[in-house]
Amino acid sequence: MERVILHCDLNSFYASVECLYNPSLRNVPMAVGGDIEKRHGIILAKNQPAKKYDIKTGEAIWQAMSKCPGLIVVPPRFSLYMRFSQKVRDIFSRYTDRIESFGIDEAWLDVTGSVHLFGDGKKIADEIRQTIRQELGITASVGVSFNKVFAKLGSDYKKPDATTVITRENMKDIVFPLPVSDLLYVGYATTKKLHRYGIYTIGDLANADLAFLKRRLGKWGEYIWIFANGEEHSPVLPQLYEPYVKSIGNSTTAPRDLTTWQDIGIITHVLAESVAARLRDHQFKCSTVTVYVRDNELEHFTRQCKLEYPTDISREIAQSAMRLFRENIDFSKPLRSIGIKASDLSVGSSAVQLSFFTDQALRERESAIDKAFDQVRQRFGFYRIQRGCMKSDTLLSGFNPKGEHVIFPEGYFKAGE
Q: N or C, fewer C-beta in 10 Å, the chain?
């Protein structure tokens, strides 16, 4: 029996929830975004009236307001969105236990074993949409197909509050004319490369020579060719299954331009402590540290380095990040955002071969200090204990990346961008 896979995408999720709690926002252009005063100025979601002004998710608030001067921007309330997300998941669980989240507002469902109880995939999708609308007051679009990639294409195909069914019989009519950038995991850089080779649609990609794609894009070229031809067969992970976490990271947009090493150091230590604490929470250690930098003209880059030993010690992560920053930043342009990511993860209890030149006693003391920090913050709050350098500029250090940001594990593929 062919699989029946659903992808459910909550329409303008954050904005829809905010409009639910404040109906006066429904018919005026509004968006959910960061704090303009603190420069966390990114559009996270927008309602239908705002979409008419071509406001895009991810663009700066100042850009959005230049398109729509009357735009109302409200701050995000992630705890509220998480509560609604769980309520939606509870609705999904009435039909299957094979539910795989793809962020807070999207999920795949494998309902293959449920069609004999509830009807075919379209009937189940329509019932789910109706239930979400009636019980929660928000809407969803659902794609129905025989694999996850095409189900995701289906949920994006028609919005809001719609069901799209993609079968082997109609896939060429629906999928092949779509822009290649619509295909899951085909990002901006890959799209540019494909355009250089005359590949503009998913159909072009599906009909391209596989050997050519592998020569030009490596293994990733084979993956996306498989996706385009509908031959993606990855399973929907069952409910309560926790996917393997490939990396843990945090980034922040600073409340003012970063122009000195002291500025960089303050935020680096805040981010490194957050990343290290997350590693300890999941009992991981990392062997690679990556930094992200974006300047005030929105140009950005990433750099990474391997560590001598796997670690969850905040000082070691911070030192590695600072070394990367010092090797790659000249302050020719003020910096606006920086981030730190830990990857190449291993189980924290794994044995590590140390060098005779390593001060293991120092590492053990620092590990104990970090764990003491964790305990104090868990009991009394994040701001009850901080390093001295953070007190030198509380405007820069006054954020809690571990408590204020919702982080999801990376997808099972990572696009070679």
A: N
